[in-house]
Specification:
The complex is a heterotrimer of chains A (743), B (418) and C (189). Chain B is an alpha/beta fold and 418 residues long. In chain B, 22% of the residues lie in helices and 26% in strands. Chain B is built from eight helices and 22 strands. Classes of the chains: A alpha/beta (743), B alpha/beta (418), C mainly alpha (189). Chains A and B meet through α10, α11 and α15 of A and α1, α2, α7 and α8 of B.
C-alpha cells in the first residue's frame, strides 16, 4: 500500500493547554516528511472527524495518526474503514493529564510520543487475513459420546453445523448408561436419565455422524484444517474437521486404594458407582447375601478432600448420595440411610434436595469414621460425631456405600516420564524426568495431536485440562480444541449439559472466525499473523518451544512450521527469536526498534534521563490510563511502548535502547506463576525468563543490571504506577546516566 | 430502529450478558444489548478480586470491552431496560426504555462539569459508603467512558452550571426518557442478581450498626478505587480492622429468607478473609459457617485459606449481633456446634455473607419456566427466551460465563431455525 | 460412645407434635444461640434433635433443657429450616412427665430462670395479643400472676402466650427492673 500519512492533533481535554502544537507540526514535517498535520479543538466531534474524512477523500490520506486520547477510547469514532491504518498517540492520559502543563519536559515527552507514533505508522502494514490453500472444514469433532459429547454434538447440529462423534465404547451414552436416575434443577424430584431419547436424537440427526468402538488415532493440522484419523473395527477413517470438543469424561477413583474404609475387605462395602449400577440393573442388594438392605451408611468424601487421595472436592457426590438414598427408600420405605459427611455441599437450589432427603428420614451425621468392621454378618462403624461431640457406633449395617470421586479421563495412572534436559536435578538414574502436568505430553491419549508440543491438552492440577481463567473458562492451550463436561472439573449432569452447550458455541465460533482469517480469543478478530523468513532461521527451536499454544510444528530439520489458524497472535515467537525473522504485518521487531530509535535522547549534561517502559497492552496499559484519569503525576522522562504481550518482548530492543543511551528499561507485565493473569498464559513468565538472561547483554555493554527491571502490574494497580516509576527513577539516578549517550 | 428478527437481544450487560453478546457476535450474529446501569460490566466491576486467583475483574472485562469495541455486530444501550416482550421464538417485539443520562456522546470525560458541581449524592457504586458529585463518571473503568448526571439536580441551577462548564456541549438537560420497539429472534435474559437485603434479617441489626457490613460492601472497602482507597477500615471511626467476623448464610439456606444456598458466599468470604489478612497483617479473622461449600478445585482455595492460622473457622449460625456502646464494637453470639459451647465474641467489624437474589423476568413477557425461587429454568420445551448466569442459579463468574456461552448458541439456534 | 437405636424413636414421633421435623435440622445452632436460657441448658435444642435421631430417648427425656423453654418463639422464628423447635421441646417435656422421667415440682425452678432473663434483657413484646391477655391486669399484676404460677410449671402455662425478643435490651430497662423488683418483693410477702 502506498502510504499517504496525515497527523491530527486534538487540543481538547487539556492537551492544548499542556503542550505547544506548532513544534509538533514542525517535527512531523521535518522528521517524517508528513505534510498533512492538522489540529482541532475537539477532534472526536463530528466536525473533527469530518476534517479527517475530507483529507481521506480529497488528499488520499490512508494512514491516520491521531494524537489525542488513549486508544482505549473512541475506537469507533476514529474508524475510517478496514483499508485505513489508524495509529493513536496518547497525548491525553499519558501526557496532558499526568504531566506539568507547558513544561519543557512535557513538551519533549509529547514530541517523542508523536515521533514514535509516526514511526510506527510508517512501518505498519494492513494485515491481510490468512487464507489456507486447503479447503476449510466447519465440522466439529466431538471426542466422547457420553452426556457431554452427545449434548455438544446435538447443539452443534441444531445450530446448523455438522458434528462427528467418536466414542470408544460400542454404544453411545457413557456413564449415563449406568445411571438409574438424574437429579437436576429444580431439584424437586429425580428424573429419568433421558439416555434413550438423547441417543435417538443423535442417531436421527442427519448432521451428526457417529463412530462407536472408535478412537482418534491421529489428529493433524490446525483449526479449520484438522485431519483426523479414526480407528474403528480394524479400519481407519479420515475426517476433516474445523474444531474439536474433547468430552472424554471421567473415571471413578480406584476404590482399591480405600481399603481403610473396608473396600475389598468386606463384601458389603461398595462404591456409589457400584450402587448406581445395581440400582439400574434390577435393584440394590447386599453383595454378601443378595438381600435388600435395611440399614445403609453412605460415607462421603471417600478419598476426596484428602491429600492422600483426591485433594479436590468431587462436587457431585453429596447429590449422588441423596439420590441413591432415595433409591433405597423407594425400594424399601422402611429402610434407613445414614450419611456420614464432612460438609454437606448441596449448592444453589440443590439445597432443596438435601431438605427433601432429610424429610424422608435419612440421617445426616457430620464426622469422621474411625473404624469399620463386621459383626455377625453385618457391618458396623465407629466415628467421631461432630454434632454430638461424641464417639458414635452404628451397628447392624447391611451396606456401606463409599461416595467416591471423579478422576478426569485425562489423568494418567502413572506420571509419564521424558528424557531430562541436561543438568536437570530431578533426573533419575536413566536420565528420565517426570513430565509436568502443564505439558502436552502428560495426559492420557485421547486426541493424539501431531503437535510439536505434545499429543494432548496440557492439564492443570490433578489432570484436569481446565482453563485457569475465570473470565474465559473455555480457553485451553490448544486453539480450536475445547473441553466439556467432567474432564474439565467434576460436575453434576445439569452442569455437564450447560458446559457442553457452551463448548459447542466456542467450537462453532472458532470455525467461523478461522474461515475469515481472524484470531480467536483473546485477540478476537485480529487479522495479523506471524510470518517467518526461513532463510535466516537458525533452527534454534525457541519459537516452537515457547509458543504457549503449541501453534508451531517443526520439520525434520527443525525448521519452524507455522500454523496460522492455531496462532493467537501474541507474538511470543517474535519475542523469542534471536534472529528476528518472525514478524507480523503490523507488529514487528523492526517496528518497535524504530520507535525506540526515534526517541530523542538528550546529552548527559542536560540531566534528562530517558526510561523506556515496555507495557502489556491488556492490563498495564489500561492501568496507566487509569492513573492518568485519576490525574496522578509521574516522571516526564519515561516513554511507554505497548506490547501485545510481554511475551513478544525481544531482547534486541533492550540492547538497542541501552546502546542508544536510554538509561533504564522497565517492563510492566502481568502476574505469572500458579495464579497467572497473562492472557497468553506464559507471556509474562517468558519475558522474565528472557530478562534473567539479559545480564549477558548488559555485561557486554558494561552496564549495571539495575538498569532493567520487571514489575508485575495488574489492571487495577493504577495507584501503584507513580510509585513504581519513581522507585525506578531513583534507582537509575543512583546508577547514574548511561555512558552510551551521544554515541 | 431496524426491524429484523435476526437480532439476538441480550438483557443485562454484566459478565453473563457481555459474554453472551460477544460469543454470538463473534460467530457472526447481530446482537442488541441493553443494560440498566450507565455502564457495562455489571456487579463484578465493583469487586476487588475474584476467587480463587485473587485477580481483578477489570482484567477480563477489558478484553471483553476490547472485543466489543471492534465488533460492529454488537450494538448496546446503557441506562436501558426492556419493559415489555411479546411474540414467540424467532419473532419477538420488545419495548425498550432508555432513561435520560443528560450527557451525550460528545462527552470526552474531561471532568470540567464535575469540578463545578457542588451537590453530592450517595455513591451507588460504593453501596452508599461514599459520596459522589451529582454529575459523575461511575467509575474509572466505566465503559462507555462517559459521565452521567443524577436526575436529582436536573432542573436546578447546579445542572445549568455543569452544562455551562462543559467545553464540548455534551450536557443536554432536555433529554427525555425514550421508549422504542425492536424486533428480535431470540432473547437472552442475563439480568444478574441483587444482594439479599440484609436488613430483612432483623436479629442482625444491619442498618443500625455502622460496623456491620455486607460482603458486597466489603468488596468496595478492599478495592483501591473504593471509599477507603482499598484500606480495610471500619465505617464508624475509620479504625484499621483488627478483629473481623464473617457470618455465613446471612439469609441463605434459610426458609425465612432464601431457602436455597447462594453458592458463592463461602468462597467470597474465604477470599475476603485473605483481603483482610493481606491488608492488615495484624488482623484476625473468624468465619462462622454451617458447611463450607468449596466445590471441585475450589477446595484448593479453602485448603490454602485454612493454612493461615489467623483465620479461624467456627461452626455456628450466628444468632445475634449487638453493638457495644461507646466503642462501636460488635458482639456476636451463637452456639459453637463443634464444641457445643455458647459463644459471645467481640469484633471490630462484622461482615454478613448475604446471598444472591435473581433479577428474574419481571415484566410482561411470554411465559418462561422458573423454579419456585424465580430462577429461570432451561428446558427444551420453551424456546426463544433463555436465562444466563445468576438468573439461572446463584453461581460464580466462571460458571456464569460458561452458561452465557451456552445461552448464546441456544439463541443462535432460535434464529437459524427460522 | 453413643449407639444407635432406630426403633426407640417411634413413640416419640407419635407422641410429640412436629417431632418428625427433627430430621430437617442442619445443626446450625441458631436455636440455642437465640434462646434466652441457653446458658442453663445441658443440651442445646439442636443436640436434643441429634440425640433423638440416634434413638437415645432417655438421654433426651432426662435433659433439663426440654423443660427450660419459656415460649419466647425466638427459635421458631429464626430456625432456618422452619422447625417448630419450641413445640417439640414442649412436647418432649410433656412426654417426659408422662413417662415419669421428672416430677412437676422440679420444673418450678425453671420458671424463675425465665424471670431472671427478663430482668437482664428486659424485653416483652407489647404487640403480642396473648401476652396482653396474660398481663391484662397490668404489668405488675401480670408478673405476680406469672410468678405465682411458677410452682405449677410456668413454662408450660406460658406456652404460646408470651413473646420475648431477647436480641435488644429495651429502652428504659432500668424502669422495668424497678418494676420487676417491686413485683418480686410483693410476691414474697
Amino acid at each position: 500500500m502506498e502510504k499517504k500519512m496525515g497527523v491530527y492533533i486534538c487540543t481538547g481535554c487539556g492537551i492544548g493547554d499542556a503542550i505547544d502544537i506548532e513544534p509538533i507540526k514542525d517535527l512531523v514535517d521535518e522528521e517524517f516528511n508528513i505534510s498533512i498535520c492538522k489540529e482541532h479543538p475537539f477532534l472526536c466531534s463530528p466536525e473533527g472527524v469530518e476534517l479527517i474524512k475530507q483529507d481521506i477523500d480529497n488528499e488520499g490520506v490512508n494512514t491516520i495518526i491521531i494524537c489525542a486520547c488513549s486508544p482505549r477510547v473512541n475506537q469507533d469514532v476514529f474508524f475510517f474503514g478496514p483499508d485505513k491504518i489508524v495509529e493513536r498517540v496518547n497525548l491525553r492520559e499519558h501526557v496532558a493529564w499526568s504531566q506539568e502543563p507547558k513544561d519543557e519536559d512535557t513538551q519533549m515527552l509529547a514530541e517523542d510520543y508523536v515521533r514514535m507514533g509516526c514511526s510506527k505508522a510508517k512501518d505498519m502494514e494492513l494485515p491481510e487475513p490468512f487464507k489456507a490453500e486447503q479447503e476449510y472444514s466447519k465440522d466439529i469433532l466431538v471426542v466422547g459420546g457420553g452426556l457431554a459429547g452427545m449434548t455438544a454434538a446435538l447443539e452443534v447440529a441444531k445450530a446448523g453445523y455438522k458434528a462427528i462423534i467418536v466414542e470408544k465404547e460400542d454404544s453411545l451414552g457413557g456413564f449415563l448408561k449406568k445411571m438409574k436416575k438424574r437429579v437436576a434443577p429444580p431439584y424437586e424430584d429425580l428424573y429419568d436419565t433421558g439416555l434413550e431419547e438423547l441417543v435417538k436424537q443423535v442417531n436421527d440427526n442427519p448432521n451428526i455422524k457417529v463412530y462407536t468402538s472408535a478412537v482418534v488415532e491421529k489428529t493433524s493440522g490446525a483449526p479449520g484444517l484438522f485431519s483426523v484419523q479414526i480407528k474403528t473395527n480394524g479400519s481407519v477413517a479420515e475426517e476433516k474437521v474445523g474444531a474439536i470438543i474433547q468430552a472424554t469424561g471421567w473415571v471413578p477413583y480406584d476404590p482399591k486404594r480405600l481399603e481403610s474404609l473396608g473396600y475389598g475387605k468386606f463384601k458389603d462395602v461398595i462404591t456409589n458407582v457400584e450402587l448406581e449400577q445395581m440400582a439400574s440393573n434390577g435393584g440394590i442388594k447386599r453383595p454378601s447375601d443378595g438381600q435388600s438392605p435395611k440399614n445403609v451408611l453412605f460415607i462421603q468424601c471417600a478419598g476426596q478432600r484428602d491429600s492422600e487421595h483426591l485433594p479436590y472436592c468431587s462436587s457431585v457426590c453429596c447429590l449422588v448420595t441423596l439420590k441413591q438414598a432415595a433409591y433405597i427408600k423407594e425400594q424399601d420405605p422402611e429402610a434407613v440411610c445414614y450419611v456420614l459427611f464432612k460438609d454437606m455441599r448441596t449448592v444453589g437450589q440443590a439445597e432443596e434436595f438435601y431438605k427433601k432427603s432429610q424429610l424422608a428420614g435419612n440421617i445426616f451425621i457430620r464426622g469422621t469414621i474411625t473404624q469399620i468392621g463386621e459383626e455377625g454378618g453385618k457391618l458396623f462403624i465407629e466415628a467421631e460425631d461432630e454434632f454430638l461431640g461424641e464417639k458414635i457406633r452404628l451397628e447392624e449395617l447391611d451396606l456401606v456405600v463409599l461416595a467416591t470421586g471423579m478422576v478426569p479421563s485425562s489423568q494418567p495412572e502413572e506420571t509419564p516420564k521424558m528424557k531430562a534436559p541436561e543438568g536437570a536435578e530431578d533426573a533419575d538414574e536413566e536420565g528420565m524426568i517426570e513430565v509436568p502436568p502443564d505439558s502436552g505430553f502428560y495426559a492420557k491419549p485421547a486426541l493424539n495431536l501431531e503437535y510439536r508440543q505434545g499429543p494432548e491438552l496440557p492439564t492443570l492440577r490433578y489432570g484436569f485440562p481446565d482453563s485457569h481463567f475465570i473470565c474465559f473458562p473455555y480457553e485451553t492451550r490448544r486453539t480450536g480444541i475445547y473441553t466439556a463436561g467432567c474432564i474439565r472439573r467434576p460436575m453434576e449432569t445439569a452442569r455437564v449439559i450447560d458446559d457442553a452447550t457452551g463448548a459447542a458455541m466456542k467450537a462453532i465460533q472458532c470455525v467461523e472466525m478461522t474461515e475469515k482469517g481472524m484470531a480467536v480469543h483473546p485477540r478476537s478478530g485480529d487479522l495479523s499473523y506471524p510470518e517467518v523468513n526461513l532463510q535466516r532461521c537458525t533452527q534454534c527451536k525457541r519459537c516452537t518451544e515457547e509458543c504457549p499454544f503449541g501453534a508451531i510444528n517443526e520439520d525434520e530439520k527443525a525448521n519452524p512450521l507455522f500454523n496460522p489458524t492455531r496462532c493467537r497472535r501474541c507474538g511470543t515467537c517474535m519475542g523469542a527469536c534471536p534472529e528476528r525473522v518472525i514478524s507480523f504485518k503490523n507488529y514487528s521487531v523492526v517496528m518497535i526498534g524504530n520507535m525506540i530509535n526515534v526517541i530523542n535522547v538528550p546529552e548527559e549534561e542536560e540531566e534528562k534521563p530517558r526510561i523506556l517502559v515496555f507495557v502489556c497492552e491488556n492490563d498495564a496499559y489500561p492501568a496507566i490510563d487509569m492513573a492518568g484519569i485519576k490525574r496522578y503525576k509521574w516522571s516526564p522522562y519515561v516513554r511507554f511502548i505497548p506490547l501485545r504481550c510481554l511475551g513478544s518482548l525481544n531482547l534486541v530492543w533492550i540492547a538497542d535502547a541501552l546502546s542508544r543511551g536510554i538509561d533504564g528499561i522497565l517492563l510492566l507485565g502481568c502476574r505469572h506463576g500458579d495464579d497467572y493473569q497473562c492472557h497468553f498464559i506464559k507471556g509474562s513468565e517468558l519475558a522474565t525468563v528472557r530478562l534473567s538472561k539479559i545480564s549477558e547483554t548488559l555485561e557486554r555493554l558494561a552496564l549495571e543490571s539495575e538498569r532493567v527491571r520487571f514489575e508485575e502490574v495488574g489492571i487495577s494497580d493504577y495507584w501503584r504506577i507513580p510509585q513504581i516509576i519513581e522507585d525506578f527513577m531513583n534507582t537509575i539516578e543512583e546508577v547514574g546516566p548511561n555512558p552510551y549517550k551521544g554515541f | 430502529m431496524e426491524a429484523t428478527n435476526q437480532n439476538i437481544l441480550v438483557v443485562g450487560g454484566g459478565m453473563s450478558g457481555v459474554t453472551a453478546a460477544l460469543e454470538a457476535a463473534e460467530a457472526g450474529y447481530n446482537v442488541i444489548l441493553v443494560e440498566k446501569r450507565p455502564y457495562l460490566g455489571g456487579k463484578v466491576t465493583q469487586f476487588y478480586h475474584y476467587f480463587p486467583k485473587l485477580c481483578p475483574p477489570n482484567c477480563g472485562l477489558e478484553i471483553n470491552f476490547k472485543r466489543m469495541k471492534q465488533n460492529p455486530r454488537i450494538r448496546f444501550f446503557t441506562m436501558a431496560e426492556p419493559v415489555k416482550i411479546s411474540g414467540k421464538e424467532g419473532d419477538y417485539d420488545v419495548t425498550i426504555k432508555i432513561s435520560p443520562r443528560y450527557v451525550t456522546e460528545k462527552c470526552t470525560c474531561c471532568g470540567k462539569c464535575e469540578e463545578v458541581c457542588e451537590t453530592e449524592i450517595d455513591n451507588p457504586f460504593d453501596f452508599g459508603l461514599s459520596k459522589i458529585k451529582a454529575i459523575y463518571l461511575p467509575h474509572e473503568f466505566a465503559f462507555p467512558m462517559r459521565y452521567v448526571m443524577d436526575p436529582s439536580i436536573v432542573g436546578t441551577e447546579e445542572a445549568k452550571k455543569c452544562q455551562q462548564a462543559c467545553p464540548y456541549g455534551a450536557i443536554d438537560l432536555d433529554m427525555k426518557e425514550q421508549v422504542f420497539d425492536i424486533k428480535a429472534g431470540a432473547i437472552i435474559w442475563a439480568a444478574g442478581w441483587e444482594p439479599y437485603e440484609a436488613n430483612k434479617i432483623e436479629y442482625y441489626g444491619f442498618g443500625e450498626y455502622k460496623n456491620l457490613i455486607t460482603n458486597v460492601m466489603m468488596e468496595r472497602l478492599a478495592a483501591p478505587n473504593g471509599p477507603t482507597d482499598g484500606k480495610i477500615l471500619r465505617p464508624s471511626d475509620n479504625k484499621e480492622v483488627k478483629k473481623i467476623a464473617f457470618v455465613q448464610c446471612a439469609g441463605s439456606r434459610d426458609e425465612n429468607h432464601l431457602p436455597y444456598c447462594s453458592g458463592v458466599c463461602c468462597l467470597a468470604s474465604l477470599k475476603q478473609a485473605l483481603y483482610v489478612r493481606e491488608k492488615n497483617p495484624e488482623s484476625e479473622v473468624t468465619i462462622f459457617y454451617i458447611d463450607i461449600r468449596a466445590l471441585d478445585r475450589y477446595e484448593d482455595f479453602f485448603t490454602k485459606v485454612k493454612q493461615d492460622e489467623k483465620i479461624n473457622f467456627i461452626r455456628s449460625k450466628i444468632a445475634t449481633i449487638t453493638e457495644e456502646e461507646n466503642t462501636g464494637d460488635l458482639i456476636v453470639e451463637g452456639e459453637d456446634t463443634h464444641k457445643g459451647e455458647q459463644i459471645r465474641m467481640k469484633f471490630d467489624m462484622v461482615v454478613l455473607a448475604t446471598g444472591l437474589v435473581p433479577n428474574t423476568i419481571n415484566i410482561e413477557a411470554p411465559d418462561v419456566p422458573k423454579d419456585k425461587f424465580g430462577f429461570i429454568l432451561r428446558d427444551d420445551v420453551v424456546k426463544g427466551i433463555y436465562g444466563a448466569g445468576c438468573v439461572r442459579r446463584p453461581t460464580d463468574v466462571a460458571t456464569s460465563v460458561q452458561d452465557a456461552t451456552a445461552a448464546a448458541i441456544k439463541a443462535i439456534q432460535s434464529i437459524s431455525r427460522r | 460412645m453413643i449407639s444407635w437405636n432406630n426403633n426407640a424413636l417411634r413413640d416419640v414421633l407419635k407422641e410429640v407434635d412436629y417431632a418428625e421435623e427433627i430430621y430437617k435440622c442442619i445443626q446450625c445452632g441458631m436455636c440455642a444461640g437465640s434462646c434466652p436460657l441457653r446458658h442453663h441448658m445441658d443440651y442445646p435444642p439442636r443436640k436434643i434433635f441429634a440425640l433423638l435421631r440416634t434413638g437415645n430417648i432417655d438421654l433426651v427425656l432426662n435433659s433439663k433443657s426440654i423443660f427450660l423453654c419459656t415460649s419466647c418463639y425466638s427459635c421458631i422464628v429464626r430456625c432456618p429450616r422452619g422447625i417448630h423447635v419450641m413445640d417439640i421441646m414442649h412436647g418432649l417435656a410433656h412426654y417426659a412427665i408422662k413417662m415419669g422421667k421428672i416430677s412437676r415440682k422440679n420444673t418450678a425452678t425453671f420458671g424463675q430462670e425465665f424471670w431472671k432473663q427478663i430482668y437482664k434483657r428486659g424485653r416483652v413484646d407489647e404487640k403480642d395479643l396473648s401476652r396482653r391477655y396474660f398481663f391484662s391486669d397490668g404489668i405488675v399484676q401480670g408478673i405476680k400472676n406469672a410468678l405465682s404460677m411458677a410452682d405449677m410449671g410456668i413454662i408450660m402455662l406460658l406456652h404460646g402466650r408470651m413473646k420475648l425478643l431477647p436480641e435488644k435490651p429495651i429502652k428504659g430497662i432500668k424502669q422495668l427492673r424497678i418494676m420487676l423488683d417491686k413485683a418480686e418483693q410483693e410476691s414474697r410477702r
